């Protein structure tokens, strides 16, 4: 029932809030290990289904873990997705962006995995395990369904606010989704995150 009502009961990334305004937070995230996959969303029913299923199989959320141990890996939140139209470099939280381009989706692995080599190796060669160093982001949180138009509006406003306040944007945005799709839309937690220097 908690999942339907939006309660987040899994591990989430550790961060320190450096600044808070009426429009956003500046957060410094600790290093993490990420399992990610880059795919063409046109090959699946939706831009989210393909990557999520591949990663869920890796950690064992949908049955036997598809990794070399095989070790069941706890689900964390958020799931992160971003466009992979430039060189693929995933950042943390699931972030999805569509529009006829490749998408990179990632699961932040539990904090017990400190280095990429600590995590079980994926059986599926499409899954890449990588380390993400300490990162600083401008972040805006919102509820509801993270539709493309809503996300685009949040990104535009966040970018403008960060630039207005003197922050230098250091990359493309990341969309973080904290709840499963069956969570009631008003109770969902989403974040748009833009890396800053």
TrEMBL record:
Entry superkingdom: Eukaryota
SUPFAM superfamilies linked to this entry: Probable bacterial effector-binding domain
One Pfam family hit: SOUL
Family listed: Belongs to the HEBP family.
Protein's name in the database: SOUL heme-binding protein
Organism, scientific name: Handroanthus impetiginosus
């Amino acid at each position: 029932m908690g999942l339907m009502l939006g309660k987040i009961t899994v591990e989430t990334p550790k961060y320190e809030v450096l600044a808070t305004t009426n429009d956003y937070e500046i957060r410094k995230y600790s290093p993490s290990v990420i399992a990610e996959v880059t795919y063409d969303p046109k090959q699946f029913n939706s831009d989210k289904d393909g990557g999520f299923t591949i990663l869920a199989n890796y950690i064992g959320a949908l049955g036997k873990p598809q990794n070399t141990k095989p070790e069941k890996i706890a689900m964390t939140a958020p799931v992160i997705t971003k466009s992979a139209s430039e060189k693929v470099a995933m950042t943390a939280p699931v972030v999805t962006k569509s529009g006829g381009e490749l998408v990179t989706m990632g699961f932040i692995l539990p904090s017990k995995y400190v280095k990429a080599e600590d995590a079980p190796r994926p059986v599926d060669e499409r899954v890449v395990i990588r380390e993400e160093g300490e990162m600083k982001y401008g972040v805006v949180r919102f509820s509801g369904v993270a539709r493309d138009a809503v996300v685009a509006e949040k990104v535009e406003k966040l970018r403008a606010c960060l630039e207005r306040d003197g922050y230098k944007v250091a990359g493309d945005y990341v969309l973080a989704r904290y709840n499963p799709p069956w969570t009631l839309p008003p109770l969902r937690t989403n974040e748009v995150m833009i890396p800053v220097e």
